[in-house]
Amino acid sequence: MSAKFLEAFSGKFAEQWITTLLTPAFIFWAGGAIAAWQKLGWKNLSNWFIPLPEPLQIASLFGIFLIISISAVTTQRFDILIIQFLEGYWFQRFRGLNNFLVKRSRKQRNQLIEQLRTLNNLGSSMNTQQRTLHFQRDQQFRYFPDDDELLPTRLGNILRSAERRPLKRYGLDAVICWTHLWLLLPDAVRIDLSTARSDLNAAARAWFWSILFMIWYPIFGAQWASFGAIGALVIYNTWMLDAARTYADLITAAFDTHRYLLYKSLRFPLPDRTDTESQHGEQLTRYLWRDHPQAISLEDHN
Question: Which structural domain, as residue segments, surrounds residue 115?
Answer without folding.
Answer: 81-301
